[in-house]
Give the backbone structure.
Amino acid sequence: MCGACLRRAPAFDRADARLVYADPVDLLIQRFKYDGETGLADLLADRPWGDTAPPEVDLLIPMPLYPDRLRERGYNQAALLAARLGRGLGLMPAFDLCRRTRPTAPQAGQAGKARRRNVRGAFACDHDLGGRRVLLVDDVMTSGASLDELARTVKAAGAAGVSAWVAARAVSG
């Protein structure tokens, strides 16, 4: 557990990262996310848990994009990663269980408190998750604010446990 999580425990129960968000991984993810190189999803989600066991999950939920951002980008990078993970886990991602309720400023360049304020109340889950174990999927975790807020939302909808998986995790150094 990182120091920030020890000071302020996140709503998710476990977080796993495939890679460290540093050169050259950061460049790959930027190409994947912003330059339309969607084929990188297979590379980024290959051996997602390395030599450790994946969490036991019933549902995969990719980080939702606001509709305007989705139209602008043309795809949801977290949904592509979730589809790749789903093939390996034998689960179809639940693309429509959660949604982003309002546009948010990009998290990049914002400090931790600003990131939390930016995403507070930004997600909704209109479905009863009735005791299910959920895996949230995203491309990068920096502060964890977005995943934390989405985890709060799915727990409020009845999820029994929430894990998170990201292609890369930023580490302070």
